[in-house]
Amino acid sequence: MLDSPFFRPVMDYYYVLPEEEKQEFAKLFQEGFIRKKELLIKQGEYTDQLFFLESGHLRGFKNTENQEITVSFVFAPVFFTDLVSLSQKTPAELSFQMLEDSKIYSASFKDVDSFMSSKPENSRYYIRFLENLNAFYLKRVISMVCDTPEERYLKLMKDRPKVIEKLPLQYIAHYLGVTPETLSRIRRRLKDC
Amino acid sequence: MLDSPFFRPVMDYYYVLPEEEKQEFAKLFQEGFIRKKELLIKQGEYTDQLFFLESGHLRGFKNTENQEITVSFVFAPVFFTDLVSLSQKTPAELSFQMLEDSKIYSASFKDVDSFMSSKPENSRYYIRFLENLNAFYLKRVISMVCDTPEERYLKLMKDRPKVIEKLPLQYIAHYLGVTPETLSRIRRRLKDC
DNA sequence: TGTTTTTCTTGACTTTAGTCAAGTGTTTCT
DNA sequence: AGAAACACTTGACTAAAGTCAAGAAAAACA
């Protein structure tokens, strides 16, 4: 993983570890590839891997009786796993599907956890990462409670323009908590103004 | 804080630290009291404290043009702060208001952070705490996207019965993303069946 | 305890979003 | 290039939730 042009920039995003630690961390990962439409994590199963998505993106969705509802998006380059099922030792609540052929590194989460616990600096890294994630989710909860669908759409455009550019409308609609038809009409209204 | 009958049970909930560490941690806190309706954290300001709420409960709400929208509830005994504003160094997005006269301990978050970084075991404690919080928020996001208001209400009754028992309907309604009138009707429908 | 204030319920009505279905446009794949 | 699959848009209609207002109920307070 040390060869990946994205490893260092992503790694340094939350907190800068000494070079030696970065290398030790990188050694936990194995290179791999995954094809579009494949599931990286399956709803109902258990995860024990941490992934580093180098290219491509994926969606997390929930299977209900009659349809798949997209709840989250993950864009490379980024570290990724189902933290909920890992930390709570419960089956995954969502499936995660690749939306492009992608290069992906994976590591045993157990090894990652040991690494993160082994030194205060490493822990600090993981703590920053978790705090960030937390902030992200809480903001989303607040937006779901306080904003209208149109306001949520505008915020998404502002905060994560890639989502709007690259992903199909139906996925974005569910992510925002509305039907595809409603999002189509929101877009129309915005264009007309 | 070592005298508090709740300190140890809450502390041990996520991960059991050695007695010595627990005591060291407890020493960071100072006892205090706060009255019903007072704000512990104010929207737009910065926080630098970690609280241990020994009794009572509070609500987090957002001020919009014409009303206050309740977004979260916190029940004693529990550790509490505005992690988002602390970790992102941004002004608080929500105000947190006491709903009862309460006993509350507070510590400088800087001290807490040093403590948590000082030993792998301490970090592990904080990490478990954050992972838990994450799971909680993610589940709420999924519920906001996938469930109907009635389903969200039933889940809340199951997962956090105290919220239903102790808090006014208007707060619960906003928490679930509906108006008080709508929640009142949901309750009626459920009673009639 | 009685008064005041706040919260909850209900009805009538409006607005918003969901559903269904048909038709158009776009990708994808061979 | 052409066929098939998929994704998006639009209209007509239905269902759900929001708004407003009035009155009942409950809680707070003096």
Which descriptors would you attach to this protein?
homodimer, 4-stranded antiparallel sheet, 193 residues, alpha+beta, 22% strand, DNA-binding
Q: In terms of topology, how is this protein built?
A:
The structure is a homodimer of 193-residue chains.
Chain A: H1 7-14, H2 19-26, E1 30-34, E2 39-41, E3 49-53, E4 57-63, E5 68-75, E6 78-80, H3 83-88, E7 95-98, E8 102-108, H4 109-118, H5 120-146, H6 149-159, H7 161-166, H8 169-176, H9 180-192
Antiparallel strand pairs in A: 1-8, 2-7, 3-6, 3-8, 4-5, 4-7
Helix pairs in contact in A: 4-5, 8-9
Chain B binds a DNA duplex (30 and 30 nucleotides) through helix 9.
Structure description:
The structure is a homodimer of 193-residue chains. Chain A has a four-stranded antiparallel sheet. In chain A, helix 4 crosses helix 5 and helix 8 crosses helix 9. The mean pLDDT of chain A is 93. Chain A is built from nine helices and eight strands. Helices cover 50% and strands 22% of the residues of chain A. Chain A is of the alpha+beta class. Chain A is globular. At the A-B interface, strand 5, helix 3, helix 4 and helix 5 of A face strand 5, helix 3, helix 4 and helix 5 of B. Chain B binds a DNA duplex (30 and 30 nucleotides) through helix 9.
